Amino acid sequence: MGIRSMITLCGLVFGFCANADVIYVNPAASGAGNGSSWTDAFTDLQDAIAGASLGQHEIWLAQGTYTPTTSNPDPRTASFAIGGMRVLGGFTANPAYPSERVLDPANTILSGEIGTPDPEDNVYHVVINTTKSGGSSGYIEGITIRDGYANGPAALNQNKGAGAYIFPDNNWSWTRFIHCVFEENTARGMDGSEPVPSTQGEHGESAFGGAVYTYLPCFFENVRFSHNQAIGGAGSVGEAGYSGTIAPGEHGGHGWIGGAGGDAFGGAVSSEATFIEILNCIFEENTAN
Fold it and tell me: What band does 171 get if pLDDT is binned at 50, 70 and 90?
């Protein structure tokens, strides 16, 4: 299959919502705060996600930095749940069309830095993809995803996918990242010194996918992965895998990109029993163990 045919097929699979109602988000907005226009935009991305209704899947983000929040007693469990949505960053000056944006991911940031400068109190996953409002796939464009710190127990999947953790929720579908940056995300396996209840997993655990961990097919185009890492916690070496571009039909089982060492897999990306497509992406200074 040629690249043109592949991209056309991907467009059909992802089910782009060209006619969907748009939800607007701008931290500087001072109107009604209902997301219906730039004047009345939500000021918080989390509110926009929570307020999305069936068939309303496209969110336009004004330039700025957004951090996830949660009502859970543990603020580190907060994430942006983007399943079934198109989230577009880089908007400024009240544009009417996405083509009027400044498509620079540095201008729109989803950050896991919710506390002190110490990363130990950052969120476990900045972005998660699970079904939302009847949707099936997730799409993020023109956004930087950074500062996730997945150092929790494996039993809760908090040792993988610090930037984006993608998993099935009764629906196996694609997640797509276009013109994005993943940087300074860390997945860290527990080393046995952490005071965690025994019901939450074993100590000496592996780490997977500093930037991205996925159980589902993913498509990355013009994405830069920079200074992400997976750090093992003195557990045993995991299953055999594949280092490099992970493409359909090449292998089964577990694969990773961005190195593997000891019990750490994929400083950049780790894929579990699925496949990913990568087009014109840059991987720099991503490490494992």
Answer: low
Of 209, 148, 208, 211, the closest CA to residue 180 belongs to 211
Tokens found for residue 12: 């059909």
d(CA 215, CA 228): 19
Q: Is the full-model pTM beyond 0.70?
A: yes
Separate counts of helices (H) and strands (E) for the chain: 2, 26
Question: Is it the case that residue 104 has pLDDT exceeding 90?
Answer: yes
Query: E strand or H helix at 265, and its extent?
Result: strand 264-265
Q: How far is CA 260 from the centre of its chain?
A: 20
The answer to whether the CB of 267 falls within 8 A of the CB of 286 is yes
For 135-158, letters b (16+ CB in 10 Å) and e give bbbbbbbbbbbbbbbbbbbbeebb
Cα angle vertex 197, ends 191, 201, to 5°?
55
**Is the pLDDT assigned to residue 170 strictly greater than 60?**
no
Q: Return the structure tokens found at 40.
A: 């009345």
Report residue 221 as tokens. 């185009």
In this structure, what is the dihedral angle of CA atoms 207, 210, 216, 217, given to the nearest 10 degrees? -140
Residue 198: half-sphere exposure toward Cβ, Cα within 13 Å: 0
| 17: confidence class by pLDDT, cuts 50, 70, 90 | very low
36 CB-near residues (< 8 Å, 6+ apart): 24
